[in-house]
Design brief:
Shape: globular
Order of helices and strands: HHHHHHHHHHHHHHHHH
Distance between the termini: 64 Å
CATH class of the largest domain: Mainly Alpha
Number of domains: 2
Largest sheet: none
Radius of gyration: 22 Å
Length: 480
């Protein structure tokens, strides 16, 4: 009886955390389909329309370490519940945005609050699963958690398309309400024990780190609306770089850092984290700008747009699952990472080359290759970086990885958005439309991130092979 009760409790924990992770993943894809009708209905510019996605990812990346700190101070489940409630309330408020001049600022604020809620949830989810499941069950439980979140991600475009087509764009935001209710109910039934350690909250670090990250990312984004010959255009991101440097110095010198940046001194962990950063950037770029291209340049209806994205999200999901099989088969993360990045780079280039034709069938091969390739590296890298750190540092390593992964998405969207806005017509920008000639610039940016990731992975492999070769030679150089 006790064994059955314990198993049921574990399943409730896994389902609750999966619902939370699913909401975060769902929101990244379901909203993409609603961007165009939202902009037209509320009179948003292309700058604000793109910012609706950007501020969400930015807030998520900036507040993920705050979520880890709050969990240590107030307890895992208290922080989790706060994150779910904040995320859901802000999501509902987005659907109530008035068709007035306040629509843009209100949407951006509520989307930022959604990101804050997600930042409080995500660090807790993996920690709770790790605490509840034993060593032998933990890997399978974390894989099931990631798989459930991936299902939500894959369903997002279709769910968003159906809702937008038949109920209007506002309906995509309340879709989180039943999922949030299920997460809270399951978490309450699971009765996870709270063990807050009473660690004092350090306000100084969040007050420095969060504005620094926001200044840098938003500074990159606003470069797209400034003149490239005006030095003021690049003054904000330059100030952001300086602020980030000061923030990093503060965190490194703190006895209780917001995120343990010292972990980046571990070579394999640093490389795996950098690759995760570089892969997240193009994944969000092609999702957002691929959706907008289908909707605005090709003028597909909402439902057709959602269905047209299935080769991308379906192949992303397939790549995620294939990654685990490749790691088991070759006993190494290098095969799915290198093969995935090479495939994704080729796919992104093919997809970019097919855009000017505006023929959907020509885009499908590149879309599928890019998706399956981008799906492979992250699961393999997750296992690699967890092996690289001491067991007592795995929670800190997970928080830092999640922070930098989401920051990669924010930086990628900021860079692509700036380049697209710079290439877009001013009249189209005012109408909330990204022209067919400006849209491919985003895909060029995505291809650039993938090329950088592939070069880094190949260089790291060469360094490791060379190091082993030198070690073997030095072992045989002495008298035998």
């Amino acid at each position: 009886m006790a064994v059955a009760a314990g198993a049921a409790r574990k399943r409730r924990v896994l389902a609750a955390m999966g619902c939370a992770g699913g909401m975060v993943m769902l929101d990244q894809t379901v909203v993409a389909v609603a961007l165009d009708p939202m902009a037209r209905s509320l009179g948003l510019t292309a700058f604000v329309m793109h910012g609706v996605v950007l501020v969400y990812v930015l807030a998520l990346s900036a507040f993920a370490p705050v979520g880890g700190m709050a969990a240590r101070r107030f307890g895992l489940m208290n922080t989790f519940r706060l994150g779910v409630v904040l995320f859901t309330a802000a999501s509902g408020a987005c659907g109530l945005a008035p068709a007035t001049a306040l629509a843009g600022p209100l949407l951006l604020l509520m989307r930022a609050l959604q990101g804050v809620g997600a930042g409080l949830m995500l660090p807790v989810a993996t920690t709770v699963i790790t605490d509840v499941y034993g060593e032998r069950e933990r890997g399978r439980a974390l894989a099931a958690y990631a798989g459930l979140a991936q299902v939500f991600f894959a369903l997002g475009p279709v769910v968003g398309a159906v809702l937008t087509q038949y109920l209007g764009w506002r309906s995509v935001f309340p879709v989180n309400l039943p999922v949030a209710a299920a997460a809270l109910w399951l978490a309450a039934r699971a009765r996870v024990a709270e063990h807050p350690d009473g660690t004092p909250l350090t306000a100084a670090q969040p007050l420095v780190v969060i504005p620094s990250v926001a200044l840098f990312v938003l500074g990159l984004y606003q470069c797209g609306v400034g003149s490239p010959t005006d030095p003021r255009t690049f003054a904000v991101p330059a100030a952001g770089v300086l602020a980030l440097a000061l923030a990093v110095r503060l965190v490194l010198r703190s006895p209780r850092p917001l995120v343990d940046l010292r972990l980046l001194r571990i070579g394999p962990y640093a490389v795996a984290t950098a690759l995760t950063f570089l892969v997240q950037a193009p994944q969000l770029i092609v999702m957002v700008h691929g959706t907008l291209f289908l909707r605005q340049a090709m003028q597909l209806p909402a439902l057709a747009t959602g269905l047209a994205l299935l080769p991308l999200v379906g192949s992303l999901t397939a790549g995620t699952y294939l990654s685990g099989h490749l790691v088991d088969r070759f006993r190494s993360a290098r095969v799915p990472v290198l093969f995935g990045l090479a495939t994704a780079t080729v796919g992104a280039v093919f997809w970019t080359a097919a855009l000017p034709s505006r023929e959907y069938l020509w885009q499908v091969p590149g879309m599928a290759l890019a998706g399956i390739g981008m799906g492979m590296p992250v699961p393999a890298l997750s296992a690699e970086l967890m092996r690289a750190v001491p067991e007592g540092k795995r929670v800190d390593a997970s928080v830092l990885r999640q922070t930098l992964r989401q920051l990669g998405g924010a930086v990628g969207l900021a860079v692509a958005g700036a380049l697209v806005l710079a290439a877009n017509d001013d009249s189209a920008d005012g109408a909330g439309v990204i022209t067919a000639t400006a849209a491919p610039v985003a895909f060029v940016a995505a291809s650039g991130f993938l090329c950088a990731a592939l070069l880094l992975a190949a260089f790291e492999l060469r360094v490791r092979v060379h190091g082993r070769f030198e070690a073997v030679n030095s072992g045989h150089s002495g008298p035998g």
